[in-house]
Amino acid sequence: MRPTARRYRRGVHRYRFLLSAQWIILTLVAIALIPTMIRLGFWQGHRYDERTARNNLVSEALHAKPVPVEQLSSPGHAVTRTEKYRTVTATGTFDTAKEEVVRRRTNSDGEVGFHVLTPFVLTDGKVLLVNRGWIPADGAQTAFPKIPAPPAGRTTVTGRLMADETTAASGIKNVQGLPDRQIMLINSAQQAHRLGAQVLGGYIEQTGPQTDSPEQISDPGSEDAPLNYAYMIQWWLFAAGVPVGWWFLLRREIRDQEEAAAAEAATDAQEKPEKPEETEPAAV
């Protein structure tokens, strides 16, 4: 047999293990993982863009110049993404007789209590819903809690404009049959029906005048967009690492086979009996 043919046959035999079930499964898994990881990286990239856009939107809203609330909202209005978190002002009178509390709300320390929702009657008779802040749930939650009184008489409040709460957006189930003057979600349409008044769409989280009680709601935190960017890079590095890892496993398998073949050849050489030396016939 020609030397080239022998080398070719040795080379083919060297990679025959790739046809084993173990290596076929390993290769198919590696092929499937690469596009999957690339797609996951793109998904994390989209999440990074979305979170960055939301952070920018919230930051712009929080730093925008305060405007009268009726410039952004009206009865039946649905607060938009660009209007949410805008600082607004309103002048009117708190109606504590029709005050309600929102159940299962937490403060910045994670303590469970209530948010205080007080109708604020504007000078033109329309109503703005004001979330005055958080109070602890002392005692049984079936009883209406004791709530610190707001400023009496005509006053001006400032706050962050918020959209009506829904179960789909908040994940909070709108439980029925609650104790009197307790609700789960803040919804201006429902409040308009309850109050029999024109209620501006959405509500505000009061930021001024500042009070110690109720505990005013802190500014919204920014979403961790850089974490999604890091995950994007991580998934793409994993995708690049799959063929590299497959190649290293291949080289290790070949090396192990060569070492096993060399050890077997050495063992055969040791066990093979030596031929007796041939001697020349003695001269006559």
Automatic annotation (TrEMBL):
It is found in: Cell membrane; Membrane. Residues 269-278 have a biased composition (Basic and acidic residues). The keyword Ribosomal protein does not apply. PROSITE patterns: SURF1. Residues 259-284 are annotated as: Disordered. The keyword Lyase does not apply. Keywords: Cell membrane, Membrane, Transmembrane, Transmembrane helix. It is a multi-pass membrane protein. The chain crosses the membrane at residues 21-42, 229-249. It comes from the Bacteria. Belongs to the SURF1 family. This is SURF1-like protein. It comes from Streptomyces camelliae.
